[in-house]
Amino acid sequence: DGGITQSPKYLFRKEGQNVTLSCEQNLNHDAMYWYRQDPGQGLRLIYYSQIVNDFQKGDIAEGYSVSREKKESFPLTVTSAQKNPTAFYLCASRNGAENTIYFGEGSWLTVV
Amino acid sequence: KNQVEQSPQSLIILEGKNCTLQCNYTVSPFSNLRWYKQDTGRGPVSLTIMTFSENTKSNGRYTATLDADTKQSSLHITASQLSDSASYICVVSLYNNAGNMLTFGGGTRLMVKP
């Protein structure tokens, strides 16, 4: 099946630790995105990548890092510099021809 | 500042009833507007997408309207079902030199009760 796969679904992090959320797509989409969702708020853009080996900061990039070494993969690292990382994280990719955004199933990150 | 405002924030209706969700935006230049359905703890799923020239689009029991002059959109749900309980998110696409960028509304949380 074609789609976007995020893992893990649930992740617990101790304070001071870095964690990496995986995002893989087999849709052959060039553009990929990471969003953060907090209760009752709209999705906020963390980082996006329009093409392999290139990415740009979104609105709330501080405390996060990404890489785009392969078209299919866009992992997000939540570093210890992110002071309030507990949230629901969504990865997405875009089909430029259809102008449609496809989302993964999300990852819950909780700091313990 | 580009903004997308949705109302109401939450809504409770009885199964079988209709409802209408609102979305007002200030995004410019406008490219397109999407409505997504998001079940709790899941990723959003696209319901409709409309460009500047379209003023209505249906997807089963979901009908979206767009008034580009007043910058308003609505999502009408007909004969609601329990499975319609979810958050509905309005997303407006801005086109600029960096490519399409998205502005998300805060969503309307709909609960359908039996």
Commentary on this structure:
The complex is a heterodimer of chains A (112) and B (114). Chain A is mainly β. Chain A is 0% helix and 52% strand. In chain A, strands 2, 4, 5, 6, 9, 10 and 11 form a 7-stranded mixed beta sheet that branches. A 4-stranded antiparallel beta sheet of chain A has the order 1-3-8-7, with no helix packed on it. The N and C termini of chain A lie far apart (35 Å). Chain B has 114 residues and is an all-beta fold. The termini of chain B are far apart.
Biggest pleated sheet of chain B: 6 strands, mixed
Compressed to H and E, one letter per element, the order of chain B equals: EEEEEEEEEEE
Radius of gyration of chain B: 14 Å
How much helicity do the residues of chain A have? under 10%
Number of discrete helical segments of chain A: 0
What distance lies between the first and last C-alpha atoms of chain A, to the nearest angstrom? 35 Å
Helicity range of chain B: under 10%
> Strand tally of chain A, please?
11
Number of helical runs of chain B? Answer: 0
Order of helices and strands of chain A: EEEEEEEEEEE
Strand content of chain B: over 45%
Shape of chain A: globular
Low-confidence stretches of chain B: none
Integer-rounded radius of gyration of chain A: 13 Å
Low-confidence stretches of chain A: none
User: Termini separation of chain B (Å)?
Assistant: 41 Å
> Mean pLDDT of chain A, nearest integer?
91
Task: Based on Cα principal axes, name the global outline of chain B.
Answer: globular
| Multimer state | heterodimer
Fraction in beta strands of chain A: over 45%
The greatest inter-chain interface is formed by: A-B, 25 and 24 residues
Layout of secondary structure:
The complex is a heterodimer of chains A (112) and B (114).
Chain A: E1 4-7, E2 10-13, E3 19-25, E4 31-37, E5 44-51, E6 54-57, E7 64-66, E8 76-78, E9 87-95, E10 100-103, E11 107-111
Parallel strand pairs in A: 2-11
Antiparallel strand pairs in A: 1-3, 3-8, 4-5, 4-9, 5-6, 7-8, 9-10, 9-11
Chain B: E1 4-7, E2 10-14, E3 19-25, E4 30-38, E5 45-51, E6 56-59, E7 62-67, E8 72-77, E9 86-96, E10 99-104, E11 108-113
Parallel strand pairs in B: 2-11
Antiparallel strand pairs in B: 1-3, 3-8, 4-5, 4-9, 6-7, 7-8, 9-10, 9-11
